[in-house]
Design goal:
By secondary structure, this protein is mainly α. It has four helices and no strands. 85% of the residues lie in helices and 0% in strands.
Length: 130
């Protein structure tokens, strides 16, 4: 082999070595990028799980608020009957009265019947006295 041929071979080896080093550098950079992407994906999964758990807890709390009812009023039968009669006198629907007073519709109708019965009894007593 002559000297010029050796310089060509040496040049090709240098170019190939340079290309090999450049590819190794780029592969290491790709490896670092993959590791960062993996950590980012893990962080997104953790954030998603935390968000889902938080929203599920929020939904449960909102449902609990909807289930909580106002405690029934501690009142006597006559005060309930009076409120029911006043509401009926204003033209309120028995269904609306029942929901406002935490009673069933039949209880509202019973209170109205009792008030009417008391009123008719009072009228009879007043007529007897007169």
């Amino acid at each position: 082999m002559n000297a010029s041929m050796m310089w060509v071979v040496a040049g090709l080896l240098a170019v190939q070595s340079g290309a090999l080093l450049w590819m190794a550098f780029k592969l290491r950079a790709v490896g670092r990028a993959q590791a960062r992407i993996g950590r980012l994906a893990d962080a997104i999964v953790m954030l998603t799980d935390t968000t889902e758990a938080g929203l599920a807890t929020l939904v449960r709390e909102i449902e609990q608020l909807g289930k909580r009812r106002t405690p029934p009023r501690a009142a006597s039968r006559s005060s309930i009957a009076r409120r029911v009669a006043d509401a009926a006198g204003r033209g309120d629907d028995p269904v609306r009265i029942a929901s406002r007073e935490s009673l069933s519709e039949s209880e509202v109708r019973l209170h109205l019947a009792l008030v009417e019965s008391d009123l008719s009894q009072d009228a009879r007593d007043g007529a007897l006295r007169a």
